[in-house]
Write a structure and sequence with these properties.
Order of helices and strands of chain B: HHEEEHEEEEEE
Strand order of the largest sheet of chain A: 1-2
CATH class of chain A: Mainly Alpha
Number of domains of chain A: 1
CATH superfamily of the largest domain in chain B: Rieske [2Fe-2S] iron-sulphur domain
CATH topology of chain A: Cytochrome Bc1 Complex, Chain D, domain 2
Largest sheet of chain B: 3 strands, antiparallel
Helix content of chain B: 10-25%
Strand order of the largest sheet of chain B: 1-9-8
Structural class of chain A: mainly alpha
CATH class of the largest domain in chain B: Mainly Beta
Chains: A mainly alpha, B alpha+beta, C mainly alpha
Strand content of chain B: 15-25%
Order of helices and strands of chain A: HHHEEHHHEEHH
Shape of chain A: globular
Radius of gyration of chain A: 23 Å
Shape of chain B: elongated
Structural class of chain B: alpha+beta
CATH superfamily of chain A: Cytochrome c-like domain
Oligomer: heterotrimer
């Protein structure tokens, strides 16, 4: 009984204000399956894509969403965007992080590679106050937190969500401060369409045009890496382990057969 | 064990057993490595290998203590008198002979690991000791203005950490010094 | 010991000296090397060895994780992520431990059902069987405690739901259940106090399991292993020494098992878990579907099959306890289902019913039952879970005693050796119907 009571309180936080006044089915629409470069046992990330994705995160998402489990040094480590050490240092210095001065007072200073990504709000209460009581979740592991299935529908879900805003049907009343999105449970989400127009982000030369779909794909790739920075190492080691274990199983099989050859069993 | 009169069978079984034992041993060693390596410093610890320090606010004669790799480090802006005392020392007077030139990159800046080489206490900044440097309050080791041991039980001079001047006023402690400018050719 | 003439003979001066002071080499030699083991064991019997391996894997990986994990609610989630990101090979050790728990349970269920099928629970192995149930209960407790440690949404809410079981005692003696629940929590709800003690207990219980495993293996070695024919060992012609015959067979089986394990660790490390556990615990937001880990699902379905909280809890625990009575509920003098065709069919039905209960446990409790391939069957989940729960208890308490008394078993071979010879010899094999 208590859980049912808490579940209705859940609706407040989940949907932003209250249950949808609109009628009809509010089950989330199944995300569209996308092709991602990292799928499968030999999948890898596209470095350029991750670098573009970081830029999209920084310029579009970081205004409201933190990623506190990431450090700037991660941007230069193998298996990720692989910025150079100098680039990572510059990217860190371009961001202000909280610190204490010599008198023990809170200040903001330029980041170093050892720093974590700063959150846009000092705490959850401030975040809610600034966002109509909705809490923009931290994005560090969001892709894993929305995943179902072997490769996870996480990336597909995030992509469908941020590109899937649409006009509500006539029978559906969207509450004040919320936006209609069929991919979100309840169909009303507190986040406005984050990638609203082509060219929202300006990429360096040599990159594909910054269409909405491209920016969405790139930020999803970045977030997938952010949630699982050792994915490439994991799969590469997995392939080696598999080959070794298959070899070991074959050898052990023949040893077993040999051992039992002369025994009735 | 079942016997086999056939030599070839014995050899093949031996080979198989040897092959499987070797494969299992190799596999075991490979599996063991991550469990050993996880105890080595993690990536976030290694990220603090180097620490940047701004020298501009430090006054002549002032000693600042900062933390580097979880250890205390002295940064001392030496006065001309202190530099002269350090450079004029006779090597024979030193328990651990080392010239001052080998212990500083710029004579004005003395950077040392603030751990007494006797038993690990932090030498005092307040009491300079008989040689103008530091006095370790634990067992009375006296260091001079180059951080060299002059009197007391410590066996070695205060250690000099690797550091690099990234500008005239900024030093990166923990980074190896840049290679010296190539010698002028005649 | 069970059968055959064998004993350790120390050969060197050192081994003789040690043997007269602490016969540990004798113990290892007689129980693990020379031990006469029925020669007809099939691969279903390799899972005991696999379980011992998995216990070691979980303990070693767990101790290593404990070097980095912080059992405080403000740091638990982040410390796990630090292990995943910054600790050398931390991601590997964490995934070994989390997927290892699932592998441990897959192996234990195969091991238990093998025992059920071949009558390994019957006299004189009743105590062995009961010790096994104790190990299983300890494993369930350990798994539950461990799952709370990452302090994700499922960790927190799963802990809340399970600890709330005890408050159902209020329906018998008002106040006692809530007092027990609060005592478990150490607070007014699941919070940091609970997390810290759960960490301590999670570290402790595997060593208790190891102790009970020692008793379990000791109890096994008195009568010796059961075998697929279910008949007693008559003499040395029926057995082979454990080493090298079963050491090599167990190693081969283990290699295949580790291959299966590795698939999850390296290519689907989060498949067996729940995505919501990557959301940091929030006591003000309940996840839409609270689901335990897969190995609890059939019991979860039984719990939810009745609207009354106390009866649900009693039935859930009863579903495990009922296995303890099996040696006495099963009246047949024949052990193995190989010679008990009716019991064999009932075995398959039981497995199917438990599987369906597992599927029900994973689904939300409302609506009609969702079968595979998107098929929705015209029966409500609630009704189906009630039918399955009733059948489950009937199987043990009613059907087994009746069928075991009334069934006419097939003729049982004279000995393992004669059965094996008949199978391998010239002419048609005298195998019982498979």
């Amino acid at each position: 009984m208590r859980i049912l009571a808490i579940a209705s309180v859940l609706a407040l936080s989940f949907v932003g204000q209250a249950f949808a006044a609109g009628g009809g089915d509010t089950e989330p629409k199944h995300p569209e399956k996308q092709q991602w470069s990292w799928e499968g046992p030999f999948g890898t990330f596209d470095r350029q894509q991750l670098q573009r994705g970081y830029q999209v995160y920084k310029e579009v998402c970081a205004a409201c969403h933190g990623a506190r489990l990431l450090s700037f040094r991660n941007l230069a480590q193998p298996g990720g965007p692989e910025f150079t050490a100098a680039q990572a240092k510059a990217l860190a210095a371009a961001v202000q992080v909280p610190a204490l001065d010599d008198k023990g007072e809170s200040i903001m200073r330029a980041g170093t590679v050892a720093d974590r990504f700063p959150s846009p709000y000092p705490n959850d209460k401030a975040a809610r106050a600034a966002n109509n009581n909705a809490l923009p979740p931290d994005l560090s592991v969001i892709v894993k937190a929305r995943a179902h299935g072997i490769e996870g529908e996480g990336p597909d879900y995030i992509y469908s969500l941020i590109t899937g805003y649409s006009e509500p049907p006539a029978s559906f009343t969207v509450l004040e401060g919320l936006y209609y999105n069929e991919y979100f449970a309840g169909h009303q989400i507190g986040m406005p369409p984050p990638i609203a127009s082509d060219g929202q982000v300006t990429w360096p030369d040599g990159n594909p045009p910054a269409t909405k779909q491209q920016m969405a794909k790139d930020v999803v790739a970045f977030l997938t890496w952010a949630a699982d920075p050792h994915m490439e190492a994991r799969k590469q080691l997995g392939v080696k382990v598999f080959i070794f274990l298959v070899f070991l199983s074959i050898v052990l099989f023949f040893a077993y057969k040999r051992q039992w050859k002369d025994v009735d069993h | 064990m079942a016997h086999s009169a056939d030599n070839a069978n014995v050899t093949r079984r031996d080979f198989l057993l040897v092959a499987s034992q070797t494969a299992a041993a190799v596999g075991g060693a490979i599996v063991l490595w991550p469990f050993i390596d996880q105890m080595n410093p993690a990536a976030d610890t290694l990220a603090l290998k180097e620490v940047e320090f701004d020298l501009a606010p430090v006054q002549p004669g002032q000693i600042v203590t900062i933390e580097w790799q979880k250890k205390p480090v002295f940064i001392r802006r030496r006065t001309p008198e202190e530099i002269k005392m350090a450079e004029d020392t006779v090597m024979g007077d030193l328990k651990d002979p080392q010239s001052d030139k080998d212990r500083v990159q710029k004579p004005e800046w003395l950077i040392l690991v603030a751990t007494c080489t006797h038993l690990g206490c932090i030498p005092s900044n307040l009491f300079k000791g008989e040689f103008g440097g530091w006095l370790c309050p634990c067992h009375g080791s006296h260091y001079d203005t180059s951080g060299r041991i002059r009197k007391g039980p410590a066996p070695k001079n205060l250690a000099v950490p690797p550091y690099q001047f990234i500008s005239d006023t900024k030093v990166l402690i923990g980074a190896e010094p840049k290679a010296a400018a190539p010698a002028e050719h005649g | 010991m069970a059968h055959g003439n064998y004993s350790y003979q120390p050969k060197t001066a050192f081994t003789k000296w040690l043997d007269s002071r602490l016969p540990i080499i004798r113990l290892m030699d007689e129980t693990m090397l020379q031990f006469p083991t029925p020669k007809n064991l099939n691969f279903w019997f390799t899972f005991g060895g696999i379980l011992a391996f998995m216990l070691v894997v979980q303990i070693v990986s767990g101790i290593v994780l404990a070097m980095h994990y912080v059992p405080h609610e403000t740091m638990a989630f982040d410390s796990v992520e630090r292990i995943m990101r910054d600790v050398n090979y931390g991601w590997l050790i964490r995934y070994i431990h989390s997927n290892g728990a699932s592998m441990f349970f897959i192996a234990v269920y195969i091991h238990i059902f093998r025992g059920l099928y071949y009558g390994s629970y019957k006299a004189p192995r009743e105590v062995l069987w009961l010790l096994g149930i104790v190990i299983y209960l300890l494993m369930m407790a350990t798994g539950f405690l461990g799952y709370t440690l990452p302090w994700g949404q499922m960790s927190f809410w799963g802990a809340t739901v399970i600890t709330n079981f005890f408050s159902s005692i209020d329906q018998i003696i008002p106040g006692v259940g809530s007092a027990i629940t609060q005592w478990l929590w150490g607070s007014f709800a699941v919070d940091n106090t609970t997390l810290q003690r759960f960490f301590s207990l999670h570290y402790l219980l595997p060593f208790v399991i190891a102790g009970v495993v020692v008793l379990h293996i000791w109890a096994l070695h008195i009568p010796g292993n059961n075998n697929p024919l279910g008949i007693d060992v008559k003499g040395p012609a029926d057995t082979v020494p454990f080493h090298p015959y079963y050491t090599i067979k167990d190693l081969f089986a283990l290699a295949l098992f580790v291959l299966f394990f590795s698939y999850f660790v390296f290519f689907a490390p989060n498949f067996l878990g729940h995505a919501d556990n990557y959301i940091p615990a929030d006591r003000l937001v309940t996840p839409p579907h609270i689901v335990p880990e897969w190995y609890y699902l059939p019991l979860y379905a039984i719990l939810r099959s009745v609207p009354d909280k106390l009866i649900g809890v009693v039935l859930m625990f009863g579903a495990i306890v009922v296995w303890a009575f099996l040696p006495w509920l099963d009246r047949s003098h024949v052990r193995s289902n190989k010679f008990r065709p009716m019991t064999r069919q009932l075995f398959y039905v039981l497995v199917a019913v438990i599987w369906i209960l597992g599927m029900l446990g994973a689904q939300t409790p409302d609506g009609n039952f969702e079968f595979y391939f998107g098929l929705v069957l015209p029966i409500s989940k609630l009704l189906l879970s009630q039918i399955c729960t009733i059948y489950y208890f009937l199987h043990f308490l009613v059907i087994t005693p009746i069928v075991s008394t009334m069934e006419k078993p097939l003729p049982v071979p004279e000995s393992i050796a004669t059965a094996v010879l008949a199978k391998n010899g010239a002419g048609s094999p005298a195998k019982a119907n498979g």
